[in-house]
Write the structure tokens for this entry.
Amino acid sequence: MQIVVIGGAGVLGQALLRAIVARGVMTRGDASLVPVQRVISVDRHQPARLLVEPRIEYVRADLGNPRLLTAVMGTVTDSVFHAWDASDEAGDEGAGEPLAPTFALIDSLRDLLSSCAAQNAQPKIMLASAYAALGRRAPQRVGGVLPPHGVGLRLRIAELLLAGAARNGRIDARALRLAPIAAAPGLAQFIGPLLRALSQGSAADCPVPPETALSLTTAEAAAQALVHAHELPRQTWLDVDALDAPACHVTLDALLAAGSHDTGLPPGPLRFQADPMLIEAWARQPVAEQLAPALHLGFAPALDAAALVRQLR
């Protein structure tokens, strides 16, 4: 089985590579369970430290090249995990977006769909979407409720684009919405360093008020959820554009208290250094409310605050 991971050098991508090779066998589009023989990671960036494993190959390339995925996938790719962080194209998931955002995510999916047409068998496409695609906190408008910012809108377009291609019989598409990943680029990037500094008794700057409500997951939990979504039967996805993955819902001060309890030591001093854009972005961040379907389908329950802290240490 050949798997391509778009964004495989990122925080989520590396966790996803570890989850795939650890599993060892996965399900093709024809429902057959086969060994994972080759995993190709494609990314614009190549950090100095990457997971090294005989089945993993790394390709560093500009994802805007329309021929790139065709060359990488060949004709025998069974599955593609699209784990590229969409916030890369907009700078942030909040008020600081440029007035003329790019549509690199949508363009990459168009290129991916073109490359899928060359495969010997219909491939599975697993999109790592985000809670940002939800619209439950956006104002009512004609035609429905929209996500509250541009990144969410583009993710929602991506989900619908894949769903349309699946209904046309071109691919087996799945989209899983993830909460912000603690310590990964984006809204929750400050969480990991903050917890580590406080656990070591060091002073730490906090960019949001301690009472801020957070929805969080970790790269490891998100990767396991994506693999589980990939393995679900195809009929699960026939009438579903996307599923919401479980996440830890906690205030920042409760998360910090869990960190202190885990170490048994008093935390270091916390300095509140307000980041207005980040505060506004968290205030506008949608919260998944329909988690029962994911739990019914066997997704692991959300991490509690203590488990999340332990994974980030």
Observations:
- The first helix runs from residue 11 to 23.
